[in-house]
Amino acid sequence: MSFFANSCQELLAEIAGLEKQRDELEVQLKKVNISLAAVVGRLNKTREERDQFDEASNQIVLHLKTKISSSPKFKGVDSPKSSPPVVQISSSPKSRGVYSPKSSPRIADEILDPESEIAKLEMEFGKVGRDYSTDEIGGWEFDELEQEVGAYK
Fold it and tell me: I want to staple 74 with a disulfide (CB 3.0 to 4.6 A). Which of 5, 14, 68, 142 is the partner?
């Protein structure tokens, strides 16, 4: 009978060890499930934010396209009002090497007023957290383009 008693005790010890291992694994599984749920939640939130951003971007692009297509300032880009400048070539030695295009006078409404453009954009899209002064904006690279264009006036 001692053989059966020893065998039963060994089996009971093995069962106790396996139950303890099962309990530890269940605790680990709960932790993994909690972590998994948190990560899935973050993924869903990120996807939702991306979708909202894409939708807002598309609305802005659509708004700008409709504004550009209806604005007389930008219609000139698609269909130019005047022909390109004509270069007059003279055979006198004084004028050799000089480029002098015939230029038409610029229309006053074609000249951009940076402050009014900023005010329009703020009215449409809201004011951004930072307020840029005219001096700060003056250093931006777009002014280099305006200076180049101004040199040809």
Answer: 68
3-state SS, residue 113: coil
- First-to-final CA distance of the chain: 116
Any idea which residue has 């396209």 for tokens? Answer: 65
Residue 14's domain comprises 1-79
Domain end position, chosen among 53, 79, 105: 79
**101: which strand partners?**
87
Q: What sign does the CA torsion over 136, 137, 141, 147 have?
A: negative
- Per the CB < 8 A criterion, the answer to whether 88 and 102 are in contact is yes
Q: What is the pLDDT along the chain (153 residues), one digit of tens a residue?
A: 677 888 999 999 999 999 999 999 999 999 999 999 999 999 999 999 999 999 999 999 999 988 888 877 766 555 555 666 666 666 555 555 555 555 555 555 556 677 777 777 777 776 655 666 666 665 555 555 666 666 665
Q: Which two tokens stand for residue 73?
A: 């300032």
Q: How far apart are CA 35 and CA 29, in angstroms?
A: 10
- CB proximity list for 132: less than 8 A, separation 6 or greater: 118
